Amino acid sequence: MANILIRLLVPSLLEVEISITLALVLIAILFLLGNSNNNKKKNSPPLNPTREIVPFDEKIQRNFSIEESQETSYVVKLEILAAKYLIGANLNGTSEPYAIIKCGEQKRFSSLVPSSRNPLWGEEFLFFVNSLPVQIHLTIYDWDTVCKCKLLGSVVLPVAKAGQSGAIWHEFDTKSGQVCLQVSSFRLSNSNSLLTDLAGVKSRKNMLSEKKNPTVAHYQPGPLQVIFRLPFDEDVYHSYSCAIENSFLYHGRMYISAWHLCFHSKFFYKQLKVIIPFEDIDEIKRTQHSFVNPAISIILHAGANGLGAPPLCNRNGRVRYKFTSFWNRNQSFRALQDTLTRYRAMLQAEKKVKMHSLTNIDQLTRVVKRDEEKGTREKFFQPFINQEILVDSVDGTFPCTVEQFFSMFLSDNSNFLMEHRYSRNGTDLKINNWSPSEEHGGQIRKFTFKSPCNSPLCPPYTAVTELQHTTLSADKGTLLYETVQQAHDVPFGSYFEIHCRWCLRTKSESSCQMVIKIGVHMKKWCIIQSKIKSGATEEYKKEVNQILEEARAHLLKQDDSEKGFARGSENHEMYQNQ
């Protein structure tokens, strides 16, 4: 009996040899297919959206900002309703079609319809163009789990003028099949509220236009830069092992940053890269992939979609991505919800700042028009620092007049600031002379140096740039001194600036009233910005107090030297009289 069980359970040597041979043959076939696809890719445009890594600069061209909206003149809305008579690309005679729609450099993905030669979509996509006519290129592919996606058909749709067309069936150019499309376009004025809502806040393209390469010497690219080609300042906040649901469960890794949700998977020679901007996400829901496999569904706004892979269908016209096989679904869900909440809070804050600035510009425009009517025109200067972030640091008196303070500590002939930096072991000191500023009024200059850094995360010395602005009243009784300090080589140094304002007003012949305010201006949102603000503010307060102590000591030393010189003159006169 035991021998019979062993023969049934343990394979024979012939069966083992056949299994190994078949496995080697299958691996060789997949290897040859991968090489042939790579060779064809050099001579033909990529048809597989998962093989194409879309550069970030191309992708963000659809994220329009308020400034870019001044150039946008038309909105083109394409509705892909259905298709019929598609080629059966699978062995069972069906296909898994999805569409890629291009208008200029803007690209959209439709959802994937499984096992259908007559798919129904009912999805709409928005494109922003500067002028008409334009052409819309629509291409339908069959999704393949392992091999290259097959072309099912394509059509070119010209949009000559503003208006709306009905639902029209279009024949494919080279393949059999038809697709039903409806196109509408309308002119968009600069003040149209729809564009403002779609644009939201200033896009990252403007924020990073001057930051093509990292300036920090010890910068190392992360997975977001290596895999997805995102900007160098995007860091991974959370990373989870999971799988994305498509026609097949592709297991990979999810990366969450401040602006994007990314997913990467590699299955044999097929790579899957998904990039979903948080601005396109409408809702994040807990769902189920099966009765025992919890999942997370990412539902996007109408007309929006991610890049890299076709999403799943949804009944209300919105597309969705479903991620499953998490180690801890609830923890991943909370991380996604928190990141989306912070992103929307950042958008609201930037919208308020933008509306406030637009309100100020409107008010200034009214004043200028009123002055032009009267024949006079005032000149307005831009603020040098952000006054809203300043907090009180010093409020007291200083034993000299405003004119003496500027002459001894801030003038071009004064070496006080250089000596202060030398006393703190600063190196590579370079300070320019004061020059008039047409933008801010008064005078400005630049002070660069290297300051020692005691943090274990920083290099021994960090480069610092300090921009200084001063305005002295005509009667030399009031002085405004402002500084903007930027550290370059500290962690998150490019994210913040330290703003400081000194206000001095002469009270008597030997004293002046001094008010000093300090604040940290965050140029970009950061997960530890509260710690950065508190730490940088306290550190700069200590530096301001040290400057004041050295200034008082310098003033006393100069008074003693003047008194000693006066006594010597008196003794010399007395000696001559004797």
From TrEMBL:
Which keywords has UniProt assigned to this entry?
Answer: Membrane, Transmembrane, Transmembrane helix
- What segment(s) does the record annotate as region Disordered? 559-578
One Gene Ontology term, aspect cellular component: membrane
Q: Name all VASt domain ranges.
A: 387-559
Residues annotated as transmembrane: 12-34
Domain (C2): residue spans on this chain? 56-172
State the compartments where it is located.
Membrane
Q: Does the keyword Coiled coil apply?
A: no
Output the CDD domains linked to this UniProt entry.
C2 (cd00030)
Q: How does it sit in the membrane?
A: Single-pass membrane protein
Q: What is this protein called?
A: C2 domain-containing protein / GRAM domain-containing protein
